[in-house]
Amino acid sequence: MATAIERAAMRRAVELAASALGATSPNPVVGCVILDAHGGFAGEGKHERAGREHAEVNALRAAGERARGGTALVTLEPCAHIGSTGACAQALIDAGLRRVVYAVADPNPVAAGGADRLAAAGLSVEAGVGASAAERANEAWLTAIRFGRPHLTWKYGASLDGRVAAADGTSRWVTSAASRADAHRLRAQADAVLVGSGTLLADDPHLAVRHVPLLRPQPPLRVVVDTEARIRPGARVLDEAAPTLLAVAADAAVDPAVSAKAEIVRLPRATRGLDLDALLAALREREVVSVLLEGGPALAGALLAAGRIDRVVGYLAPALIGSTGRPVLDGWAAASIDGAVRLRIDEICQLGPDLKVVARPMQVGANGAATNGSTTGPTDGSTAGADDKGGR
Fold first, then answer.
1. Which of 375, 224, 205, 189 is closest to 299 using CA atoms?
2. Cα within 13 Å of Cα(305), Cβ side
3. Which residues are catalytic?
């Protein structure tokens, strides 16, 4: 049974892991704290970037000889395989540790088995300590490994009555500069930023990270869902600030000037637009772990109907636009109150004049889809139409 000191050390390990969000993909974020044989702090470390040493190795290096006879607190089961770095389980054994406590079992069959190796070497092993917090810090990577698709966060800015744009289509700026700066932090943490063609054509967004530092060598991939390849060669997402992936129908005609500036992926058509599960699969093939959906209402509605939204981040401005404004969601509606998608609110804070609300679906099925009610609307996915515009 973990002691109070060990639980406190695990909380610190989770903090370390979370501090690396946006830097380690396609690897998980992992934190590790080493206690000496008397329960005193000996060292700590985190996985800082894919291809570099894992958290356990960094923590052991910091602890030095004080690790011998001590305890390691790790947010993820130590790996048992040798990839670009050595097996962390063996490193812990070689360091002479007496005990290892980890929060979450490694679901990756390539790396799993570290706990068994530790136990076979005679170490005391305990699992599940701090699991909830460790799962939250690593939710994107865990979703990708468990369900074979990227973790998807839907971000939007809206008025207090749920409108992302006025009747004339204007949406800049619904929310404050403080909210927009925070949204750039979300971009910096994501592997890919996703919009539909309506948002692209109406707003010509850049989708690059500004105002906050990038923690990785490569900026997030800009992804445009554009069934009919309506993007213009001069679109801002086609500049050199970040790579761009354009998802189009298999039979769409792409302007050569566009294909020279972006990677083109051709996907099957659905009843409306493109097959969004095929899009997510194509992103996963490119080692995308986390996706930030930024626009617009129709694309968000299609992904919600398909049960593919894992987290919602809403920035709510103290403004009222009225019934003729564009709603947050389009193309999806609950048939009755029983079919409403229920969310669990995990965070509420004030950013300047706005409220930031972070929420997640209350239930997730075995395939990673929300399962808390029936819905109406396209379940096979839809691209953003000409009117698919999201507020920012």
1. 224
2. 25
3. 56
